[in-house]
Structures are given as C-alpha cells and as structure tokens.
Design brief:
By secondary structure, the chain is α+β, with helices and mostly antiparallel strands. The protein has 9 helices and 20 strands. The strands form 7 sheets. Strands 6-7-15-11-12 form a 5-stranded antiparallel sheet. A 4-stranded mixed sheet has the order 1-2-5-3. It has a 3-stranded antiparallel sheet with strand order 17-18-19. A hairpin with a 2-residue loop joins strand 9 and strand 10. Bound molecules: flavin-adenine dinucleotide.
C-alpha cells in the first residue's frame, strides 16, 4: 500500500505539522543512518496512538513504534508505512507511593534516572547514560552493570491490538538478555502491543550517594565507549557462556576495520561507529565481515543486538 494524496490529507488533517512524509530516519536514530519513513507521526497521547494503529490497519499499512532510535539500524530504503514516536503526555514521570515511579514510554531514560536520584529512589543508576526512551528500554530489557529494566519493573500499561488499554503484570512477562516477551497465559504478543507506561519499584536511598554513583558510572561509560560518535551502542549480543562479543571481535583482529565511514570502534570493538557519511549498507557489510571473521576463528556466530528495520529489498539481501 502506498500513500496516496488522499491518505496524506487524512493524516495531515488530524496531526497537522506533527506528521511528516518521506521523513529521513537518519535524523531519528543515534546511528544517523536510515532512509525515509513514508509517514512519521509524533503522537501526544494514547488516543492518537490508537487512532494511528486503527488507521494503519484499515489501510493495510504496517506501523512501527520508535523511541529514541538508539537501538535501530534503519535500511537506506527506509520504512514503509507509519512510524510513531511519542511526546507530550506520553513523556510524563511521577512518583507512586513511597518508593515507586511510573514513567510514560516516551520519557527519556536519562530524565527517569535524574528523577529517581532527585527523589532519593535507588535502583535505576545502571541505566544512566543509556540514550533510550522508557518504552524502548522496556522493550529491549536494556541493562548495564548487572542491572536491567526487568529487575525493577512491576508492570507496564499497554495498548492491546484491539485498541483497548490494559495493565500487564510482571508475572506475565518474561525478561531475558536484551529481550522481553509476554508469557502465553497473557494471550498477547508483545510485537502486537504498544508499551504506554512502565511502573517501577525502587528503594529509598540518599540522593547524594545516588548522584555520586551515577556520576561514576557515567564517567566509566565515557572512558570505555565512543559516546561522542554516532552508533547504536553494542552492535552484537554477547554470546552465552563465551567471551564478550567485543573481546571476540578484538581477538579476531577486526578492531578498526571499516567500510566507508562505518568502522569497528578502535575504543570498543563491539561498537560500530558512523564517522559521518556511512550508509546502512556500509554498516551491514561491516557487520557481515565481522560475523564471518569471528565465525572462522572461533566457530561462534555473533547475533546483532541492534534491531535492523526497514525496506530490505536491496541492501540486506546483497551484503
Ligand atoms: C552510546 C549508546 C550506548 C548504549 N548503551 C546501552 C547499554 O548500556 N545497555 C543497553 O541495554 N542498551 C544500550 N544502548 C542501546 C539502546 O540505547 C537501548 O536498547 C535503548 O533501550 C533503546 O531505546 P530507544 O528508545 O532508543 O528504542 P528504539 O531504538 O527507538 O526502539 C527499540 C525497539 O523498541 C521498540 N519500541 C520503542 N518504543 C516502544 C513502545 N513504546 N512500545 C513498543 N515498542 C517500542 C521499537 O519498535 C524497537 O523494536 C546504547 C546505545 C547507544 C547509542
């Protein structure tokens, strides 16, 4: 299904300047890579998301939720259908009870961490410096320094595929390494739902101590990761019961390897960085070269942690 001018008019009437057509995804991803989304809409509340999901279904179009685009590699052909990002009332954060926080999916993880510190609530410092949204972090079960979203969540509010809103208790969710799934008893598929809000159980702690710890973790991150360059964080998942992916890539001699402006970071071998003009195709070629080299040397196939999305008619097949 392509966007006729009639369909464009429908979205423009509803969202005015908050819908953009042929919007380059490179400006919405931390990799600074990615072709155009047919339509990119910033939704301000749950009703608008429900409208978009139903509108997309009615017109046989796919839709994709995005947070900060910090775990995405969008292909050069871009994304067909509607890309939905969240702002406005979808970015609120508030304290709940004595040591709880509820945060809307569109809030930034950094804002959530700072809110927790200011209110003397501990447990979130591991997320300091992860440049994602609350929704994206829950979806990816983001984590660092032995902490992860699954450890502190008590549940999430979701939009179900039928457009209703409901609460999903943690008991019905299965968190694993950089991944979340709903248990079969929930009767729902995560991929068919939108995460609206996360509810977190934290512990009461001294704000100054929390701030000192957060600053130290941020400094450690800056020292070990190429944070000033465009990337999507760790590119590959760490293989189970093996050396970390970065170490394997380093031992395989791939540190510094490049294709065009895409490079295996000399600072951290599990980061692919974009020096400015890399295409998704460059990054995918580099990914494949690293996978092949590591496989030949260690018989281990590295799997991308970064999610590759978008029209794959050319580059994904031809790497
Ligand atoms: C410099 C750097 C450092 C990083 N360090 C870490 C780290 O230490 N640990 C770590 O785990 N990750 C890290 N990352 C990766 C990334 O920041 C995390 O995975 C982050 O949680 C992704 O959030 P996002 O909002 O950017 O999600 P996006 O990349 O926008 O989306 C990721 C996935 O979530 C889905 N999604 C987003 N919002 C919703 C929603 N509301 N409902 C349903 N699905 C949704 C998207 O469709 C997509 O499938 C790093 C990235 C960078 C660039």
């Amino acid at each position: 299904m392509t966007f006729s001018s009639g369909l464009k008019n429908q979205l423009t009437e509803k969202f005015s300047e908050r819908v953009r057509f042929n919007e380059p995804m490179a400006v919405h991803t931390t990799f600074r890579v990615g072709g155009p989304a047919d339509a990119f809409v910033t939704a301000m509340d749950a009703t608008e998301i429900i409208f978009l999901i139903q509108w997309a279904a009615e017109h046989h179009m796919p839709y994709l939720m995005v947070g900060r685009g910090s775990n995405l590699l969008v292909t050069d052909k871009g994304i067909r259908g509607v890309v939905i990002s969240m702002a406005g009332s979808l970015a609120g954060i508030e304290q709940r009870g004595f040591a709880g926080i509820s945060a809307m999916a569109g809030a930034g993880l950094g804002a959530l961490c700072r809110f927790a510190i200011a209110n003397g609530l501990g447990g979130l410092n591991f997320a300091m410096g992860i440049p994602g949204s609350v929704g994206g972090a829950i979806r990816m079960n983001a984590g660092a320094w032995e902490g992860s979203m699954g450890q502190i969540l008590t549940g999430i509010r979701i939009i179900r595929p039928d457009g209703t809103i409901g609460f999903m208790d943690k008991k019905l969710m299965k968190f694993s390494y950089r991944s979340l799934a709903f248990c079969p008893e929930s009767g729902l598929e995560l991929s068919a739902c939108v995460i609206l809000e996360g509810v977190f159980a934290l512990t009461s702690q001294d704000p100054d101590m929390l701030k000192t710890e957060a600053d130290a973790l941020l400094a450690a991150r800056k020292k070990s990761q190429p944070v000033s360059l465009a990337s999507a964080g760790s590119f590959f998942k760490n293989p189970v019961d093996q050396e970390p992916a970065g170490r394997l890539i380093d031992l395989a001699g791939c540190k510094g390897l490049s294709v065009g402006d895409a490079q295996i970071s000399p600072q951290h071998a599990n980061f692919i960085v974009n020096h400015g003009r890399a295409s998704a195709r460059d990054i995918l070629r580099l990914m494949r070269m690293v996978q092949e080299t590591v496989f030949q040397k260690f018989n281990i196939l590295l799997e991308p942690e970064v999610e590759i999305v978008g029209d794959e008619s050319t580059e994904k097949k031809s790497v």
